[in-house]
Design goal:
Layout: H1 7-23, H2 33-38, E1 47-52, H3 59-62, E2 70-75, H4 82-93, E3 99-105, H5 109-120, H6 128-144, H7 150-168, H8 170-177, E4 182-188, E5 195-201
Parallel strand pairs: 1-2, 1-3, 3-4
Antiparallel strand pairs: 4-5
Helix pairs in contact: 5-6, 6-7, 7-8
Length: about 200
């Protein structure tokens, strides 16, 4: 089963699926009735994808996946909260997923809103404020490094989010240290559909 893939093989499988998507040669695997039937009793996803909620970033489509292939968690700006951590820990400890993917993308609305808030001092209202507060460290780091483009801030946010997962969760850090899992950060291009590796924690 896919569960027994190494982190490196899981990343290779994702990469190959993304290459098919980019070239317009998606094979749409594991989307038929027999696959659906085979998954009724259990699931063995080979990756957990923690990505932005953006409608243009549908994980199963951009990596050419099907039912049971990926455990998917999404929030705007891929912002971490307790529910996200619990979901990711479940995927690693119960489902045995070998690869955690943090997926950001260019022109991210949440990162753009944070950049605007930092520059103007005007925070958004309601719970959107929580999103901005959590992305702010990445925006500030980018500005300190003289990176003022929002897409640089997206990459910084992916890197910081990946590190925060390992720092915040003993379950995840133990799996990484034990070689059972790795955490990678990917930056997705809306224009060409390519997901590029921008960070990695663990053996790949």
């Amino acid at each position: 089963m896919a569960t027994y893939l190494t982190p490196a093989l899981a990343w290779r499988r994702l990469r190959e699926g993304n290459e098919r998507f980019v070239s317009g040669a998606s094979s749409h695997p594991n989307q038929d009735a027999s696959r659906r039937s085979s998954l009724v009793e259990n699931q063995h996803p080979f990756a957990v994808i923690f990505g932005c909620s953006d409608s243009r970033l549908a994980a199963e489509i951009i990596f050419d996946l099907g039912l049971g292939d990926a455990f998917v968690v999404r929030t705007a700006g891929q912002v971490i909260d307790d529910a996200v951590l619990g979901s990711l820990e479940y995927s690693v400890s119960v489902l045995g997923v070998p690869l955690i993917v943090v997926l950001g993308h260019d022109r991210c609305g949440a990162v753009t809103a944070t950049k605007t808030a930092v520059e103007t001092g005007q925070m958004p209202v309601g719970f959107m404020r929580s999103l901005v507060e959590r992305i702010t460290p990445s925006v500030l780091t980018s500005l300190r490094n003289n990176q003022e483009d929002v897409n640089d801030m997206v990459i910084e946010n992916v890197k910081q989010t990946s590190q925060r997962l390992v720092d915040s969760s003993r379950v995840i850090s133990d799996a990484v240290e034990g070689g059972r899992a790795a955490v990678i950060g990917l930056a997705y291009s809306l224009a060409d559909g390519k997901a590029d590796l921008v960070s990695g924690i663990g053996e790949l």
